[in-house]
Structures are given as structure tokens and as C-alpha cells.
């Protein structure tokens, strides 16, 4: 059995899925895109899109009463793999500012993402 995670601090799902699920020991965050949950705005710059996407992931993790340091795996989907340096810069800043170790990560280039954004990130976190 699992519990659905829902928070107003992250964007409302744009399809038939939940923001995340809490399995007890493991929390799985659905792929997040860079929608500002308050304004609905999507920034055009990949650096800012990356930070917003990670903030959305963080909000869902915190709704499960965990912290960024509990994230052990992420998957990053990029529309353009040439953006990886800017993505890595924002990604590194996010984890350092949240005093967390870098999780394991996969990064995949894809042809298209929802709402024509440049990045989507899904994550898994562990409850120690």
C-alpha cells in the first residue's frame, strides 16, 4: 500500500498521476517540470528551469516530511543534451545549498517534454 503525496507548493499534475507516492521507506516523486506553482509561469532559460524543477521536487519531498538530503536517485530528461553544463551548474548549486550529497543520477535527451519545457526531473528518496 502507498500514500499519495499532494502539496500546493508544487504544480498540480497535468495528467492522470499524482505528484508522488510514499511507500513508507521510499518516496517516489513523479517527473516534475519547471512550472512555478504560484504563478503558473515557465521561465525560458534552462538554468532557471532546472532550479524551478528541483524546487518542485523539493516541495513534494518535504510534503512527505523528508529533506533534499534523503534523495538518493534522480532522472533528468533534457530536450537538448547540450544544455548539460548549465543544468549541472544549477543542479550542483541546489544540492549544495540544501546541504545534501549528490544522488545517483541518469540524464537522458528526449525529443519533447510536456508544455514544451526543456527539462523534467523525477526523484526517489529514502526514509532512514
TrEMBL record:
Superkingdom of the source species: Bacteria
PANTHER family from the UniProt entry? 2-IMINOBUTANOATE/2-IMINOPROPANOATE DEAMINASE RIDA, 2-IMINOBUTANOATE_2-IMINOPROPANOATE DEAMINASE
A single Gene Ontology CC annotation of this entry is:
cytosol
- Gene3D superfamilies registered for this protein in UniProt: RutC-like
The molecule here is called Reactive intermediate/imine deaminase
**Can you name one GO molecular function term for this protein?**
deaminase activity
Q: Pfam families in the record, alphabetically? A: Ribonuc_L-PSP (PF01042)
Q: List the top taxonomic levels of the source.
A: Bacteria, Pseudomonadati, Pseudomonadota, Gammaproteobacteria, Enterobacterales
- The species is Candidatus Pantoea edessiphila
SUPFAM superfamilies (UniProt xref): YjgF-like (SSF55298)
UniProt lists the family membership as follows:
Belongs to the RutC family.
